[in-house]
Structures are given as structure tokens and as C-alpha cells.
Amino acid sequence: MPELPEVQTIVNDLVDAGLVGRYIRAVAIRWPGVIQDMPAATFRRRVTGNRIQAIQRRAKFIVWRLEDASQVLLHLRMTGRLHFARPGSRYAKHEHIAFRLDDGRQLRFHDTRKFGRFYLPADPGAFLARLGPEPLAPAFSARRFAQRLQGRRRMLKPLLLDQQFIAGLGNIYVDEALWDAGLHPLRTADTLQFEDVRRLHRAIRKALRKGLRNMGTTLGTGETTFYSLARNQGRNRDELNVFRRTGSPCPRCRQTIERLVVGQRSTHICPTCQPPPEQT
């Protein structure tokens, strides 16, 4: 699933492609299930003729702010991606929606597994307010992070994946941050000292910034992996320390990286750098 760096990369691509300021002249919805919480015809009617005033990211959502103050939210989920197609060109099997712009271009959404969704909430502010803070925002300090952790007893891995606790993190960058901070994913939040919190805060921001600098993480070459708007692969795979490096030496201590399952999620650790929590 695309995480904060991958989604931000696509947002940057859309802005660079000149979508801001364009009018949506027509919307072709080939699979109505791609529209969440409203009839496809209602979505089409409300979006058609609107002007895209801004394109931003919130957590793992791509946000189009439209001229009438409404907002189109897109969650790519596991396999969703956007790309431009020639007007009139044949639709591929998994292209579920297409937006025709006033400059003649057509932006299509492709999703092999059909998990991705478009939203047009009545109150986008309230919809997005349910999400946790942005980890790269200047206001998200180590002290604020400590305040959010206070009183929580969940294991670190599922807690950091919870989008209502902190926005934008997924499996890749949580594993990388926990390794960098030297914290085991089974540690519970209530066992952390402030120095642990400070180290984890720094590691989260470091992992995300590296992913942004490398324009995301592409794993493999299949249709289900991440590609940018122009079908470019993210370069971050070559700089991963533990994620999907089972059996390889830890870059820090040379111990063999191990895989385990935490909260039903595949997890990668160095058993030396990330000592397991003490049994009580």
C-alpha cells in the first residue's frame, strides 16, 4: 500500500503535470464501486465542470480542492495508481474511472484489486480530522509525540500503523523507523522512556524524508507495485535497512535480519539491535 512518501510523490507529479487550474469536463465511471458513500451518477454530476484549485496530501489521501469548496479524496489502497491516457484510447481491464480535462488530457485511475476509493464528503474537514497528526509537520515535536503516547499500552507496530494515532505510516516505514530507533515492534508504548520517544520520533521523520527524497519505494516489477504518475519506480528500495531483507546482514551490527508477524503484518527486525521486551 502506498504510504506517505509514495502518495506525496504522486501529489507532486500531479502538480508538476499542471492539473491545478484545470477544469474537469467529463467523468467516465466504468465501475461504480470505485465511488464511496454516494451513487456514481451523483459524484459525476458534482465533479463535472468543477475547477481543480489545489492538490494536496493528507495522510494517505490525495486531496483535490475544487472551485465550489468541495474536495475529492482518493485513497489508493493496495494497488491503485493514476496515469494519463490519450483521449479515445481503449480502456485497460482495470481502469475504473477517467477524468477528461479542459486541455484535452485524460487522467485515469487503474486498480487491479479494486480496493482504491474516491470520496466526496459533505464535510471534508470533519472527515480528515479523524486522522492523526502529520509526522513531518513542524508542530509534531518529540514532546507532542510523547503526549500522544501517554497512557497507551498498545504494541508499537500496530500503534504506529493506526492512522488515527499518526498519519501516513505503513508497514515499510514503521519497520525502518523501529530499526533505526533500536526498538522492538512488540514493545508497548507505556514502557518507553522519553529518550526512547525522542529517538523514535527522529527515526520516523528520517525514514519518511529518505523515502520522499527517493520518490517512494517500489518493490518488484509487477502491476501491483508502486509507480509514479509517469510510471517511474521509486528508488528507496535500495536504501532499506530491514524491510524485506530477511536473511541479510543488519547494516549496523551484521546480525541476520529476521521476519516475524505482528498484528497480522509481516515485520522485519534485527534481533540484536532491537532486543525483545522483557517478559513479566
Unreliable spans are none
Total helix count?
A: 7
Largest sheet: 4 strands, antiparallel
Q: Residue share in helices?
A: 25-40%
Q: What is the general shape?
A: globular
Strand order, main sheet: write it out.
Answer: 1-6-7-5
Would you list the SSEs in sequence order as H and E? HEHEEEEEEEHHHHHEE
- Number of distinct beta strands: 10
State the end-to-end distance: 35 Å
Question: Overview of this structure, please?
Answer:
This protein is an alpha+beta fold. The chain is built from seven helices and ten strands. Helix 1 runs parallel beside helix 7 and helix 4 crosses helix 7. The radius of gyration is 20 Å and the shape is globular.
Tags for this model:
280 residues; alpha+beta; four-stranded antiparallel sheet
Secondary structure elements and their pairing?
Layout: H1 4-16, E1 24-29, H2 40-47, E2 52-58, E3 61-66, E4 71-75, E5 80-85, E6 95-101, E7 106-111, E8 117-119, H3 124-129, H4 142-149, H5 156-161, H6 171-181, H7 194-213, E9 258-262, E10 265-269
Antiparallel strand pairs: 1-6, 2-3, 3-4, 4-8, 5-7, 6-7, 9-10
